[in-house]
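Extended Data, record Aminotransferase class III-fold pyridoxal phosphate-dependent enzyme
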Amino acid sequence: MTLPFHVNDPRDVIEADRAHVWHHMVQHKPFETVDPRIITEGRGIRVWDISGREYIDAVSGGVWTVNVGYGRESIADAVRDQLVKLNFFSSSTGSIPAAQFAEKLIARMPGMSRVFYASSGSEANENAYKMIRQIAEKRHGGRKHKILYRARDYHGTTLGALSSCGQEERKAQYGPFAPGFVEVPHCNEYHAAEQGWGALSGEAYGRRAADAIEEVILREGPETVGGLVLEPVTAGGGVITPPPGYWPRVQEICRKYDVLLHIDEVVCGLGRTGEWFGYQHYGIEPDFVTMAKGVASGYAAISVCVTTERVFEMFKDDATDPLNYYRSISTFAGCTAGPAAALENMRIIEDEGLLENCRARGAQLMAGLERLKERHACVGDVRGLGLFCGAELVTDRASRSPLPELQVQAVVADCMANGVIIGATNRSLPGRNNTLCLSPALIVTADEIDRIVDTIDAALARVLSS
């Protein structure tokens, strides 16, 4: 690892960071005595910090983003070439990469039709919410405006997105929130007993968890509920894979009550689960699909809200009302770097067979986590789909009591100290931030999966036996 030519002394960078950068999701008080971590380089699934220390990154940039790995010169070249030709123009006007990426994306999403660009996952979800609200106003006299969201799901950091957040600690201190967002129960079978459904499992549990959504619709009044937003696999809320029977019943309920189904693929999208999108494992037909992180693997800022033609047509008419069309705008949706990077990102996934690698290496990772469950009594449950996996840590398997967050974070820190970066639920669920989260890039090898699992194995032994 070499420092960039314009860095003479690493201490200068560290002190500039300490003095002026306000990091996301970090308490800065410790930086008064401890140096902030600064990552300077990445290749494949490895990164190096400013001291030259090498790490295997098992969380794709810390937030499930760098799906095709670091150091992709072809993506950088595509972005550079496009920016020289045309870097930006308002997205009320078209561009070549935006049109080309939309066409290629829709070809991989049967039943979907239109692509609305923005810059972040939060924006993508806000656009879906605003479309649902505008449809309620245009078609239902404003009554069918409520949007249901699921406990433990997360949909973004803006106030509108936080209004639909099923993670209490993410929302704490930021209210009051937008009205009209209503929570439905989670679908974590491992904690069915806490929901009063302890005798149910498998498909019976899945249908019961979905039926709970119908109960909320009936309680609120079907004439008031316009949308339902769900992650295909709950991400930061504990890597919760839906049980059999859940998704078909959810689709049935949405159609029964004319509720628009919005799938948030910000984490799962573009190959993370072994299909292009997580919802495609379950045979459902959404009205909205939102995505961001893996769309360009972090090489440029881009998000999209994809809709069906039916939804699009609701905003296209000859009415004289000048407010009748969808009027949202995202300034940097007009930057052509995003779709240019996304096009090359998609080509890499296809040409290198990364969906197939994701399925194979994901199965290997899940098998490794199952072995950890056999070896360590603190591993209560393992869950996952493709290269998106989690291990829930407990103090007692019989009661399924969560391991305290400080101990979970100690496991994460031990892995970091031994050269592997993993994630864990944190600052999300009061008393339930106890799931280790793994999402290595889709290029990960069998040897790298073994290294990740072995490092967690050793960390569990060291931290929880001391």
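Summary. Residues 354-375 form the longest helix (22 residues).
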